[in-house]
Design goal:
Shape: globular
Radius of gyration: 18 Å
Number of strands: 8
CATH architecture: 3-Layer(aba) Sandwich
CATH class: Alpha Beta
Number of domains: 1
Largest sheet: 8 strands, mixed
CATH superfamily: Alpha/Beta hydrolase fold, catalytic domain
Number of helices: 12
Strand order of the largest sheet: 1-2-4-3-5-6-7-8
Distance between the termini: 37 Å
Order of helices and strands: EEEHEHHHEHEHHHHHEHEH
């Protein structure tokens, strides 16, 4: 698996699909999610539409740089945030969501790519939004998928989904794979696939299981704050995709994102949760192909 070192010294594991001369599409993964959550078949199918597809592990995940020397006590962090002591909470987090977003640009630069279409899913949607806000001249288009705006009144998790997300998973491989079925709480009701969830969990465990990094990513995401004014001022062509079955990030998160970004297109998909079920790939890939076509 190739590693690209960014100017900030972060090494990012990545993989590319398609012709290097085709328009680049950067796929940004979610919280604790390795790049393999962007399934290779999905990446190949998008590449066959004439796109150079790039997937990568965020920092502190998979095979990318890990911050072992900066542990985060999540219970203490949550108490600190709940008490409103944001300066203390910031001091506990070794990096910010903006730092993670900048990694995306660092990877593009290392690959010799000046501008790209950026597609982010869940926390990756937050990072993609931050990329577009920080350096719109480098983002050809933005796609924010199953994400939200950082405003607490939008995109709320159901209590059950939030509890499942925050609950520690078993450390042994068998228990970890079995616990993957918790994701059914926010998956597509029609296309839920327990076997696929277990398979992804097994491959993720074997490739680069690293729960400590997820805690630090969660701290960065928690402290990112609302992007209301920044999204209102955004002038990057934007597509918002959200599943109507999503209970981890309520569809109001996607609706609000599309409401804020001028001219944004909103695609709400029935039978999609906080996942990308294979039967809906044609719809999603069609939308991405159309959105990333050259503009006059």
């Amino acid at each position: 698996m190739p590693l690209a070192e960014t100017l900030s010294g972060i090494s990012l594991a990545h993989e590319t699909f398609g012709d290097p001369s085709d328009p680049p599409v950067l796929l940004v993964a979610g919280l604790g999610a390795q790049m393999i959550t962007w399934h290779e078949d999905f990446c190949r199918a998008l590449a066959e539409r004439g796109r150079r597809v790039i997937r990568y592990d965020n920092r502190d995940c998979g095979l990318s740089t890990r911050f072992d020397d900066r542990p985060v006590d999540m219970a203490r962090f949550v108490r600190t945030v709940s008490a409103g002591d944001i300066p203390a909470a910031l001091a506990m987090a070794p990096y910010s969501a903006q730092d993670m977003a900048d990694d995306g640009f660092g990877l593009l630069t290392a690959l010799g790519i000046e501008r790209a279409h950026v597609v982010g899913s869940s926390m990756g949607g937050l990072l993609a939004q931050l990329m577009a806000v920080a350096a719109p001249e480098r983002v050809l288009t933005l796609t924010s998928m199953m994400s939200t705006t950082g405003e607490p009144e939008y995109g709320r998790s159901s209590p059950e989904a939030q509890a499942a997300l925050l609950a520690p998973k078993p450390s042994d491989r068998e228990g970890y794979v079995a616990a993957a079925e918790r994701d059914l709480l926010w998956a597509s009701k029609r296309y839920a696939d327990p076997a696929a969830l277990r398979d992804l969990a097994a491959r993720s465990y074997d490739r680069g299981h690293y729960p400590a990094g997820t805690a630090r990513q969660l701290a960065a995401m928690t402290l990112s704050g609302p992007r209301t004014d920044a999204l209102r001022a955004l002038r990057v062509p934007t597509l918002v995709i959200h599943g109507l079955d999503d209970t981890l990030v309520h569809p109001s998160g996607g609706e609000r994102t599309a409401e804020l970004v001028p001219g944004a297109e909103l695609l709400l998909l029935a039978d999609m949760g906080h996942d990308r079920p294979r039967p809906l790939w044609p719809r999603i890939i069609d939308a991405l192909e159309a959105h990333t076509r050259p503009r006059d």
